[in-house]
Design a protein that fits this description.
single chain; 356 residues; alpha/beta; TIM Barrel; eight-stranded parallel β-sheet; three-stranded antiparallel β-sheet; 11 strands; 17% strand; globular
Length: 356
């Protein structure tokens, strides 16, 4: 595992994943946040994501929690050691045994139930993950709970710890910082891995009929960690070309403007073209993408093959949802390439200014 990306369970996010080639799946592990009115998109993923591990959590985004699947199955109910969530994980395992269940919580969840959920998962799965939400830094309650969960496990060496910073990053990653101290606390557990997760993907889009470039700062801060005294090298993680803090509510009558995006380390090129639902403009956006100086080529990934096809045929150009899947797929593939190119380079030796 060299790279983790967190995505919501939705039609186009799943298309972005299932169109990844086997060689890319060998080094990439998705973290799925379950949501939706039913589980049909999850079932599509489970049927197509074979022979490779994946993390599965239940979304805590307010809009997702209000959807039918989480509510009808009462997945965030902590009673009886989150028995409903346990059942969800076990049902998923019967379909695809590559699942790594994710233990997560809010600070007001009873600690005993969280720990019992982790112990149940440890008994029933080959590996588990523990996800701590860290807005700039984890709350004292969350961090103490993480350590309590790890202390309770029989074999923490089969556990992954995911430090999820969302749309933030630590105030400092230098030696002696709170972040550095936190990582050193994890040394004693001989963990399977420590995964960092963050996103700097913009929460807004450029104005209509304009383009812009936005820096990806996740690579910079995650690569600039002082690793002295830290046993494990943290695994890079992001939200691909998404931001969970961005507005996701659709208001009737809201204009839907064609939007394209392309990732070239370390920035996103973003383009809006045309008016409300004028999706035919995606033909020209596809060509603009192919003209970018950092374009990887038409055969680079599923997304670039689709861009080439759209330009060649002027048909099947899709809509905003379709292109969300394209940008996620292309971002993941470009990030895998970037990480692979750095396998023989000690990122800690690079200058911070070279990464942004």
């Amino acid at each position: 595992m060299q790279y983790v990306a967190c995505l919501r369970v939705g039609q186009n996010d799943i298309k972005a994943l299932t169109n990844l080639e086997p060689a890319r799946r060998d080094v990439f592990t998705p973290l799925l946040d379950m949501r939706g009115d039913d589980d049909r998109h999850l079932q599509t993923f489970l049927a197509n994501w074979t022979d490779h591990p994946f993390f599965l959590d239940v979304s805590r985004v307010r809009k997702d929690v209000a959807e039918d699947f989480i509510g009808d199955n009462d997945l965030h109910n902590p009673s009886e050691a989150f028995e409903n969530k346990q059942r969800f994980f076990l049902n998923t395992q019967r379909t695809n045994n590559n699942i790594i269940p994710v233990i997560s919580w809010t600070d007001d969840d009873p600690q005993r139930n969280v720990i019992q959920l982790a112990l149940s998962a440890e008994r029933n799965f080959n590996q588990i993950a523990i996800r701590v939400f860290c807005p700039e830094k984890p709350t004292s309650t969350s961090w103490a709970r993480l350590l309590s969960v790890l202390d309770s496990l029989n074999a923490p060496n089969f556990a992954h710890v995911i430090l999820d910073f969302g749309a933030t990053s630590p105030a400092s990653t230098a030696a002696g910082s709170e972040f550095n101290h936190s990582l050193k606390q994890l040394n004693d557990y001989n963990l399977k891995s420590v995964v960092l997760l963050s996103t700097s993907f913009p929460i807004d889009k450029p104005a209509s009929n304009t383009s812009r470039s936005s820096a990806c700062y996740d690579v910079a801060w995650q690569s600039n960690i002082d690793r002295n005294g830290i046993n494990l090298s943290p695994i890079y993680g992001d939200y691909a070309a998404t931001n969970p803090t961005a507005p996701m509510e659709y208001i009737p009558g809201m204009p839907v403007l064609p939007f394209g995006c392309y990732y070239t380390p370390t920035e996103w090129w973003q383009r809006r073209k045309g008016g409300n639902k004028e999706f035919v403009n995606y033909i020209e956006i596809a060509q603009e993408v192919r003209n970018l100086p950092g374009y990887h080529g038409d055969d680079f990934c599923w997304a670039t093959r689709e861009y080439s096809r759209i330009v060649a045929t002027s048909t099947g150009y899709g809509n905003n949802g379709t292109w969300n899947g394209y940008r996620i797929n292309q971002h993941i593939c470009a990030m895998i390439l970037s990480i692979s190119d750095d396998t023989n380079v000690e990122l800690g030796d690079l200058d911070f200014d070279d990464l942004i």
